Amino acid sequence: MKNYNKVSISQDSRTELHDKLSLTGAEISINNLPAGTCVPFVHSHKNNEEIYFILSGKGKAVVDGETIELISGDWIRISPQGQRQFFASDDEPISFICIQVKENSLEQYTMEDGIMHN
Amino acid sequence: MKNYNKVSISQDSRTELHDKLSLTGAEISINNLPAGTCVPFVHSHKNNEEIYFILSGKGKAVVDGETIELISGDWIRISPQGQRQFFASDDEPISFICIQVKENSLEQYTMEDGIMHN
């Protein structure tokens, strides 16, 4: 079996990668909100940390009632218990990825976890 | 303490987010390779799955000796044991993010892990 999987992503409103890429340590979604729209609910998580990256456009997140303005290039980490909702701006869409991982699951990384082969 | 952290990322050759965002379930790096250059080593991992997303430009990955052409919008998952190296194309730079998570660490996600608040 090959040690990799690859996909290319379209401009659908939401694409989930867990099954497409056979992910085992994360779920990743790509989300596109038209101008003036929002994710239609507030949510938090039981166990999972979420990391959001703004690919293009602008909008805002509201976390525990606090508004955080977001533009292309911004990264935001939200603890499981943070109550969050995402909005496109009134006049621009927003595209973002959301990375969902189990809080405190990373034990070692980069130099500690890596093995060099040349 | 706030339930979130935010950063905006520049065009440095490599930016690591673990400490900047107080991540606990992933390490994430943003990488920019000029045209004609590559990551100067082949590596694999002890425990960590890696997920790469091509932000812009083009290039290739070589995984276990197999060449995978990459362009903006591509996603690729690589198992810990995959021996990998990343290259920009000869005439274009490549920018990509690398998400490092512990293999098999995700227990539940999205609807199973989420809690709705309205």
Any chance you could write out the topology, listing elements then pairs?
The structure is a homodimer of 118-residue chains.
Chain A: E1 4-8, E2 14-16, E3 27-33, E4 43-45, E5 48-63, E6 66-71, E7 74-78, E8 84-88, E9 94-102, E10 114-116
Antiparallel strand pairs in A: 2-3, 3-9, 5-6, 5-7, 5-8, 5-9
Descriptive notes:
2 copies of one chain form a homodimer. Chain A has one domain (14-102): Sandwich (Jelly Rolls), CATH 2.60.120. In chain A, 0% of the residues lie in helices and 53% in strands. Chain A is built from no helices and 10 strands. Chain A has strands spanning 4-8, 14-16, 27-33, 43-45, 48-63, 66-71, 74-78, 84-88, 94-102, 114-116. In chain A, strands 2, 3, 5, 6, 7, 8 and 9 form a 7-stranded antiparallel β-sheet that branches. The relative contact order of chain A is 0.25. The model of chain A has no long low-confidence stretch (mean pLDDT 96). Chains A and B meet through strand 1, strand 4, strand 5, strand 6 and strand 7 of A and strand 1, strand 4, strand 5, strand 6 and strand 7 of B.
Radius of gyration over C-alpha positions of chain A, nearest whole angstrom? 16 Å
Task: Look up the CATH topology of chain A.
Answer: Jelly Rolls
How many domains of chain A? The number is 1
Largest interface: A-B, 66 and 67 residues
Order of helices and strands of chain A: EEEEEEEEEE
Average pLDDT level of chain A: 96
- Any idea what the shape of chain A is? globular
What's the total helix number of chain A? 0
Quaternary status: homodimer
Quickly give the CATH architecture of chain A. Answer: Sandwich
Please report which band the strand proportion of chain A falls in: under 5%, 5-15%, 15-25%, 25-35%, 35-45% or over 45%.
over 45%
Structural class of the secondary elements of chain A?
mainly beta
Low-confidence stretches of chain A: none
| CATH superfamily heading of chain A | Jelly Rolls
Q: What separation lies between the terminal Cα atoms of chain A?
A: 24 Å
**Biggest beta sheet attributes of chain A:** 7 strands, antiparallel
Query: How many individual β-strands of chain A?
Result: 10
Helix content of chain A: under 10%
- CATH class of chain A, named Mainly Beta
